[in-house]
């Protein structure tokens, strides 16, 4: 089948920005077969790159569900975290690094090379396309470096065009400046009036269908996120960058419709390694959300199975005492500390009963009565349990930008209103997850559709709760707590937030547990373990040199594999 036909089929499947998994797999061929690259257009290669940013199921399974989310107390296994859950999570695979070389960065470089092979007239029409590719490439390089530190970038991806097979590494400090400059240049170019009309990426742009205004806002918003990583390492530089970015032409993401979110149909992430099944809701977060009437709680988690009907049946069948009182609270989480979840008090709570019920086929079966809530599986894999909804992979949302601006104002970096941006952020986050839950077609524990839209009264009630209503004396604490909740679908950003601010923690408004295993408080990992190269690795010398440079920083840790060590921006 010719690539043009493949692309046509792909675009047909992309109605409503949805991608079928079978077409996704076909496009993966382009990553490994260099003879195919010259058979496609730059626009198609851009789309291929975007698909590969989110396509690896191992990132969901190993990096998110089994590592970052347990570390950040965003989920636990069924019976709570094991004593060894920190060390077990060293299986964090840093899939993003493997995606960057060559599936994302490599393909975006190929796209630019394809443009260079066109006539001068055609090249002139694709100046904006190339700058959009630079924005995506810069963002993903930042995303990789965020947990690995130094990366080959300036000399990388050039083998097909005659470049080196042994690229040197750029330090994270240098890389941050390079990426910021690249994004700034993209904004300047996209804001200019070119001498010839520009060819749009159109439907090959799975984010914005070629909308230039939105890409400018993405570039500026990415610069802001990167600048805030400098908070501990170089606060003066951070402030200068922030003020420059806030004044940059084109502005930041400033509305929900402008949010940078990749959307795909149900078969793109339909269970398996994408699955959040059998992952429990965490007690600290569930308690905070429940006690404050957070509308998002029903989108993040599923209610337990103690319905009024099941409770009554259990009484009738003598499974619970006749004097038992029905508990109207249906959201309960698991303690995140291994020692707490292993304690008798929780073990007794976990003991479930079964009742006999008649199922849909008329058969009498045993149904467990589960006291605890689970993560909402379709929020992470819309194809779970036969779902037909939409998957969403947020990169930078309007709510993200609101909370960044609120934090910067609360810290006195800007003169904006922290209260105004905080209130906008909370409202935007609630609306964002309301929309996601609706489109993902979330379900209850029986597999029945369970989406209930948020209403204005719920939002007002939530915003007036003591711990939620803006309090200038607790502003930073409140802002960080809400940003953390907002990152439920972006666990890597929740992790970065914790590393940058130390919040939330056991003393903040949103109180997380101290993670204690066998009486010892655990140290939360702070970066990916870096692979030790084989002496036969073609780039062995540059890799070792990069590791030595990073290890010169005492915060780097005991060696490349030390996941409690830190990357450059994460200064103690």
Characterization of the model:
By secondary structure, the protein is mainly alpha-helical. It has a domain at about 270-520: Four Helix Bundle (Hemerythrin (Met), subunit A). About 50% of the residues lie in helices and about 5% in strands. It has 24 helices and eight strands. The strands form four sheets. Strands 1-6 form a two-stranded antiparallel ribbon. Strands 2-5 form a two-stranded antiparallel sheet. Helix 1 packs antiparallel against helix 2 (about 20-30) and helix 7 packs antiparallel against helix 9 (about 125-150). It is globular.
Outline the fold blueprint.
Blueprint (H helix, E strand, L loop, with lengths): L2 H11 L7 H12 L1 H4 L4 H13 L2 H15 L13 H4 L6 H22 L3 H5 L2 H22 L23 H19 L21 H17 L6 H12 L13 E6 L17 H9 L5 H4 E2 L5 H9 L21 H4 L2 H7 L2 E6 L5 E6 L4 E2 L1 H4 L9 E7 L1 H13 L7 H23 L15 H8 L11 H12 L4 H11 L14 E2 L2 E2 L18 H12 L21
CATH superfamily of the domain at 272-521: SusD-like, tetratrico peptide repeats domain
Oligomer: single chain
**Beta-strand percent range:** 5-15%
Largest beta-sheet characterization = 2 strands, antiparallel
> How large, in whole angstroms, is the Cα Rg?
25 Å
Helix count equals: 24
Overall mean pLDDT: 91
Label the CATH architecture of the domain at 272-521: Up-down Bundle
- Provide the low-confidence segments as ranges: 1-34
Q: Give me the side-by-side strand order of the main sheet.
A: 1-6
Q: What's the CATH C level of the domain at 272-521?
A: Mainly Alpha
In one word, what is the shape? globular
Structural class: mainly alpha
Find the count of extended strands (DSSP E, 2+ residues).
Answer: 8
User: How far apart, in Å, are the first and last alpha carbons?
Assistant: 55 Å
Stated plainly, the CATH topology of the domain at 272-521 is called: Four Helix Bundle (Hemerythrin (Met), subunit A)
Helix content: 40-55%
């Amino acid at each position: 089948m010719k690539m043009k036909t493949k692309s046509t089929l792909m675009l047909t499947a992309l109605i409503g920005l949805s991608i079928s998994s079978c077409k996704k797999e076909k496009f993966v061929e382009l990553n490994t077969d260099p003879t195919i690259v010259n058979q496609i257009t730059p626009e198609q290669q851009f789309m291929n790159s975007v698909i590969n940013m989110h396509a690896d199921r191992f990132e969901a399974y190993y990096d998110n569900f089994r590592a970052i989310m347990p570390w950040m107390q965003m989920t636990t296994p069924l019976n709570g975290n094991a004593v060894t859950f920190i060390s077990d999570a060293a299986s964090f695979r840093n899939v993003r690094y493997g995606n960057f070389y060559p599936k994302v960065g490599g393909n975006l470089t190929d796209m630019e090379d394809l443009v260079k092979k066109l006539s001068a007239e055609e090249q002139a029409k694709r100046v904006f396309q190339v700058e959009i590719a630079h924005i995506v490439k810069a963002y993903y390089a930042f995303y990789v470096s965020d947990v690995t530190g130094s990366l080959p970038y300036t000399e990388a991806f050039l083998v097909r065009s005659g470049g080196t097979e042994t690229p040197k590494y750029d330090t994270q400090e240098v890389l941050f400046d390079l990426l910021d400059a690249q994004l700034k240049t993209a904004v300047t170019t996209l804001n200019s009036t070119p001498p010839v009309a520009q060819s749009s990426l159109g439907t090959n742009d799975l984010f914005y269908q070629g909308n230039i205004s939105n890409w400018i806002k993405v570039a500026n918003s990415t610069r802001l996120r990167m600048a805030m990583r400098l908070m501990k390492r170089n606060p003066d530089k951070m402030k200068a960058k922030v003020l420059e970015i806030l004044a940059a032409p084109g502005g930041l993401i400033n509305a929900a419709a402008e949010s940078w979110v990749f959307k795909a149909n149900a078969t793109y992430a339909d269970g398996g390694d994408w699955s959040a099944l059998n992952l429990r809701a965490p007690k600290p977060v569930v308690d905070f959300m429940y006690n404050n009437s957070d509308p998002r709680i029903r989108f993040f988690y599923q209610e337990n199975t103690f319905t009024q009907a099941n409770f009554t049946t259990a009484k009738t069948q003598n499974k619970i005492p006749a004097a038992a009182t029905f508990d109207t609270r249906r959201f309960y989480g698991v303690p995140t500390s291994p020692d707490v979840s292993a304690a008798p008090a929780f073990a007794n709570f976990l003991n479930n009963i079964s009742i006999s019920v008649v199922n849909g086929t008329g058969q009498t079966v045993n149904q467990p009565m589960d006291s605890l809530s689970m993560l909402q599986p379709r929020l992470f894999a819309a194809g779970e349990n036969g779902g037909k909804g939409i998957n969403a992979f947020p990169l930078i949302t309007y709510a993200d930008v609101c909370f960044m601006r609120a934090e910067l104002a609360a810290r006195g970096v800007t003169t904006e209103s922290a209260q105004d941006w905080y209130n906008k952020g909370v409202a935007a986050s609630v609306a964002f997850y309301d929309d996601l839950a609706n489109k993902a077609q979330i379900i209850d524990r029986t597999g029945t559709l369970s989406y209930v839209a948020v209403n204005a009264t719920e939002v007002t009630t939530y915003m007036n709760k003591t711990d939620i209503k803006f309090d200038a004396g607790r502003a930073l604490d409140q802002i960080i707590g809400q940003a953390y909740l907002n990152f439920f679908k972006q666990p890597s950003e929740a992790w970065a937030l914790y590393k940058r601010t130390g919040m939330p923690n056991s003393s903040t408004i949103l109180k997380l547990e101290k993670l204690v295993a066998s009486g010892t408080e655990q140290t939360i990992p702070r970066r990916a373990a870096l692979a030790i190269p084989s002496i036969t690795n073609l780039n062995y010398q540059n890799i070792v040199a990069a590791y030595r440079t990073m290890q010169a920083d005492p915060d780097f840790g005991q060696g490349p594999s030390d996941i409690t060590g830190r990357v450059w921006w994460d200064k103690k």
